[in-house]
Amino acid sequence: MASKESAAVIWMLSDSLILSVMLLIGGFLGKAISPFQVVFLVNVIAAFAAIILFSKGKWENIKPQKMKLHIFRGLLGVSSTICLFYALQYLSLAEVTAINFFVPLITSILSVFIFREKPKAYVYIAIILNLAGVMMLLSPKLMASQVTQQNLYLGLIFALSAVAILVIYNINLKKIGNAEKVVPQMVFAPLYSAIILLPVAIFVWKPLDTNSALLIMLYGGLLITKLAARFFAFNKSDLSKLMPLEYAQILFSSILGYIFLQQTQTLLGIAGIVLIVLSSIAHVLFMHFERNSHTKNMKGITND
Predict the structure, then answer these.
(1) Residue 115: C-alpha distances to residues 24, 233, 240 (Å)
(2) pTM of this structure
(3) By CB distance 3.0 to 4.6 Å, which of 50, 70, 121, 202 could disulfide with 187?
């Protein structure tokens, strides 16, 4: 049990790092190419790569058990990614990441009712502290000029739309994970996403330069890796426990934004990031203590 939850933590942190890199690449691509074309090409690459790697020439190797859930997931994945691409045109990488943290907040709460999970008090404390850190990070822009506020509102519309979609996406993914193997997910999530976007992609299509093509290929590879990381994490621990770990992404996004985009933070914003990181570390430690306590109790019962 302890090893499974440790692995879940590692997979979830890997997922957060990969998503930060994907958002960074998306910010670059979205300035030159329509997000619809980018997301279409990324999913085509990911789908073909997954089919070649996992099918081995046999339909049985990739045959899904829950086709409708995969179609629904593809629609959700496309919608959330496009919303995030547009949000990055108005907000910084760290700000989009911060707003995206409403996803674990809402998902953790809904998982209690949908999956009958019973999170401990430390899960709720982590959520509250991380939410406070998010508000500290966003507060400088909320108090800025009217033009800046207009960009903030546009960015918020896209970012919060992505949040609502991603909450449904996580719940859908948990349901798939309970009834589906990882290989069909790796194949059909990007495949259906590409099919859904095909008509729009044709309409907005424009030729790609070399840099854009390379970035799209990299994005596609990261997408495959991220799909696997999240699937393995969700299969090894409760959703309510894993969701607060997504807040570690703010550290990754802040570092990447500073290095590649020269995006800096105010002192209040830095304080918010520190609060988020410390809260996430505390959350992991509490999970560790809980596992140790459970292991000791089981050994005591066995010895008796």
Answers:
(1) 33, 16, 10
(2) 0.69
(3) 50
The 8-class DSSP code of residue 32 comes to T
Which residues have CB under 8 Å from 193's CB, separation 6+?
A: 39, 43, 47, 74, 75, 77, 78
Q: Which of 235, 245, 240, 5 is nearest to 111 (CA)?
A: 240
> What is the per-residue DSSP string for 137-182?
HHHHHHTS-HHHHHHHHHHHHHHHHHHHHHHHHHHHHHHHHTT--H
- Token readout for 165 is 């979609």
Backbone angles phi, psi at 283, to 5 degrees: -60, -45
Closest CA to 102 of 124, 131, 74: 131
pLDDT tens column, 21-62: 988 898 888 778 888 898 899 888 888 888 887 777 677 767
Question: Which run of H or E residues covers position 303?
Answer: helix 267-303
By residue count, the chain amounts to 304
Domain boundaries along the sequence of the chain: 2-298
Supply the DSSP string of 100-130, one letter for each residue: TTHHHHHHHHHHHHHS-----HHHHHHHHHH
Question: pLDDT digit string (tens) for 103-136?
Answer: 777 777 777 777 676 767 777 787 788 778 878 8
Asked whether 177 and 69 are in contact (CB, 8 A), the reply is no
